[in-house]
Design the sequence.
């Protein structure tokens, strides 16, 4: 995805805070440098971006891959975090993750990104949402198909290698969200991540799958507003 992924959530939070959306390296309009870029490099990118816009501290949130990056950023730059939102994500995809992610990335390279679309759509949102909001999914698919296959492969490798099961103590609020029908990062992964972060809250959304900011933007907006309220109180 690219920054437009968050456009459905934006109306629920833009009156409460300044909001910064960006395309991660390898995605959208950002550069697509060759080679492997671990999740820590993406965390460094976010730090550089905050420096560039003059933000010393922010509530940081991400979904799926973005959640991995947000967690890595919080682990390496905790002094820059006023609150953390981890949506539809995990600290570790498991022992088989490198092989599984490599296979997915290679399929995109050898067969084209379109070969992955049926699998992706079945995981992103529920069948009901697909039927009621085809325009939302069509836009998401268009963004997905615009990916450079080699950049997509490197992103898959980054996610397969990501392992953030050793975290420092966080002194900011952390809110975790997962859809009850999330097959990509299921509830058990969210529970394991919650257990890594003392004081973190976990909310399981009914009737939702892997991309809750697309399927439940109002509820994700509520989660972000709670983080913003806590950050302002401190």
Sequence:
């Amino acid at each position: 995805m690219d920054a437009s992924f968050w456009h459905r959530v934006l109306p629920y939070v833009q009156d409460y805070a300044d909001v910064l959306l960006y395309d991660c390296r390898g995605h959208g309009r950002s550069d697509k440098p060759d080679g492997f870029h671990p999740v820590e490099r993406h965390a460094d990118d976010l730090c550089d971006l905050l420096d560039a816009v003059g933000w010393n501290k922010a509530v940081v949130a991400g979904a799926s891959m973005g959640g991995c990056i947000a967690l890595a950023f919080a682990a390496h730059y905790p002094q820059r975090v006023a609150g953390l939102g981890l949506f539809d994500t995990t600290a570790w995809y498991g022992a088989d993750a490198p092989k599984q992610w490599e296979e997915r990335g290679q399929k995109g390279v050898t067969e084209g990104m379109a070969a992955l679309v049926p699998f992706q759509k079945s995981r992103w949102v529920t069948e009901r949402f697909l039927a009621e909001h085809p325009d939302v999914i069509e836009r998401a698919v268009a963004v997905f198909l615009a990916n450079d296959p080699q950049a997509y492969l490197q992103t898959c490798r980054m996610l397969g290698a990501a392992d953030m099961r050793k975290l420092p103590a966080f002194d900011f609020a952390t809110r975790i969200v997962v859809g009850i029908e999330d097959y990509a990062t299921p509830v058990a992964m969210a529970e394991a991540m919650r257990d890594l972060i003392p004081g973190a809250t976990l909310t399981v959304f009914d009737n939702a799958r892997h991309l809750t900011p697309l399927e439940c933007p109002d509820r994700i907006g509520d989660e972000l507003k709670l983080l913003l309220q806590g950050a302002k109180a401190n």
The longest helix spans residues 217-233. The chain has a mean pLDDT of 97.
